[in-house]
Amino acid sequence: MTANMRVYINFRLKCTMKGCLSMKDRINTGTLSNGLVYGVRETDLDAEEVQLSLVLKTGSLQQREDENGIAHIVEHMNMNFDKYSYYKQYLEYTSYGLTDFDRTVYVFSCRNHEDSIRQCLFILRQIAEGIYIRSEFLEAIKQDIAAEIHSRSQAGKSETDQAIFEHAFYQSRIPAGDAESVRHTSHTQVTAFHKRWYKPDRMAVFVVGAVNHTEIQREIIAIFSELFCADKTHKDSRDAGMPAEYPSPQSQRLTKQLFTVGDMNLLEIYMKHTDQVEVTLKSDLLRNILVEQLDTVCSEALRSVGCPVDFFAAMFINFINLQQFCKFRVVYRGVQSPHQIIEVINTAICSLVNDPNIGCLVEENKKKYADYYSSCEFHSSLDVHGLLEECVEHFILGSPLLSYELDMQEITDTLNSIGYAEVRQAAELLLNIQATALVGREEDMR
């Protein structure tokens, strides 16, 4: 009934600092004969709560040209189970759905009780089967999504998408959808999309909590093993509406708008980093170290030119493992233009590349990260939901899911292998600022 089963041995994450707790983490994964992947993560972080998820490698990128927003509609309709009074009366739970470019995720949180877990797994199976995609709910769902699209537009999120991905394939596949396309979507289209993409070989089910992994595995096998078998003719799940490879964004438009709130200037700067570079643990840690460097040198550089900075943050954004951007968020008081801010940041990045003394800062930041991962602060930040999100991310990206003992060891080894030359090289990639977009919005202070 199952294949490719992997079990990671039980362990305790230990911290010598006073007051730290130990943590149990046992991961049991497998693949059912119909292609569905499952994972049970047994942990003692929370004795009362269990989180479950159905994850699909299906999102807005799988939509055809005339289906803009349909993945979002399917997700909303699948959440209609909540309208049935039975579940409200007899099952204590919270739930939500999420549609993104490359995934659709359904999450449940319930009491750590075998009946509750079984009921949630049963609902997830019904979602996989499309039981709740009923025509009488469609118009109300479309109105809800239209309101959500309007809200996103008011919040400026669509402006950000347009500035970064204008003229790119992604712009026509924004997960929230297009209001006009959503309005004209029929029930026939919705059921066809579900049938085409909701297949076991694109799905995973995860359960995380203080559970007995053997019993939960047995429940998953009993509930999901008979789920409709994958249609091998759609194994790659590509059709005429889907390109063989996702195109890279075109050169970005420079939005000449600075958003002001009172006497505060709020500016977001997106610098295109690299295209189609595999994201690994080392590349993630390398960029995190670079972000620490950028926070330090850019904040100091802005203040040195008389730009009073109230808030500065740099971060790397990985767009579905295909596009990487370095995002700077600057809140400042002053008369500097966005182009002046970019020039200051550009100069600061040059200092990282050319100043050999900055290498000492690299070592300091490496030590900071190493200390954090072994600290009580890090351990106290772990929760059941975070472990579930980690399971989801590893499934979508196709990377192995490690227990925290192995994960922490790999982080330590990788940090030790990173040198200043690699950080400097990562900084050099940011010096080409031709593809830079400035985005933000005017906010109402009332």
UniProtKB/TrEMBL annotation:
Protein keywords: Hydrolase, Metalloprotease, Protease, Zinc
Gene3D superfamilies: Metalloenzyme, LuxS/M16 peptidase-like (3.30.830.10)
Domain Peptidase M16 N-terminal: 46-154
InterPro entries (alphabetical): Metalloenz_LuxS/M16, Pept_M16_N, Peptidase_M16, Peptidase_M16_C
Keyword Transmembrane helix: no
Limits of the Peptidase M16 C-terminal domain: 187-353
The family this protein is said to belong to: Belongs to the peptidase M16 family.
Protein's UniProt name: Peptidase M16 N-terminal domain-containing protein
